[in-house]
What we know:
Elements (H helix, E strand, L loop, with lengths): L1 E5 L5 E6 L14 E6 L10 E10 L2 E12 L7 E6 L3 E6 L8 E5 L4 H10 L9 E10 L5 H15 L9 H6 L3
Parallel strand pairs: 6-9
Antiparallel strand pairs: 1-2, 2-4, 3-6, 4-5, 5-9, 7-8, 8-9
Amino acid sequence: MIIDFENPTGSWIRIWLDEPPPGLDFVTSRDWRVSNLSGGVAVVRHHRVAIEIFRPFGGMFHYGLLGGGFDSTDIGTPFRVRVPARDVTTSCAWPSSRLPDGLVEYSSEYSESILNGVKDLGVTIPSRGVLSFDTMVHSKIGSAATVFRALSRGVVRALTSKLDVLPTKEEAFSLLA
C-alpha cells in the first residue's frame, strides 16, 4: 500500500507499507553496523516500510527517503538495528522521485542519526527481531542528519502502527515527529 499526501505549503510525504518503492534496489552490504537495543513493547504489524519526505522552508528544502525491513524470525536475540557500515554508491537517479537530483545510495554519514532516531523512541521499539535500513535516497543539497533521524523514527512508528486504513495527512506527517 502506498500513502501519498501533499500540504498546501509544498511539503509532501509518501509511505510504502509492506512493499518497496518502485525501481529501488535494496542495499546489499556485506559490512553492517549492528546496534543491540534494549527491547521495548511495540508489536510489529508491517514487515517493510519506506518513507519519502520533502519539506520546503524559505529558499531551501529538506529531502530524504529511508526504508527498512523487519525480520521477526530471529526472536532469540534482543532488538537489533542494522545500517551499512560503509557508503554504498550507485550514483544514479531514482526515476520515481519527485526530486530531480535524488541519488540512490546509502551514505554512511547519516548512520549515527538513523540509529539515534530509533533510540529516541525508547520503549516504543520492538522487543525482539532485526530491523535493517537498506533503502536510501538523498540529494546533494537538502538532505541532512536531522532528516534521516526523523525518517528512522517514522519507519519504526510505521512498522508498529495500525496503518491498515488510510491515515489522515496529519497522522502521516506526525510519524516523523
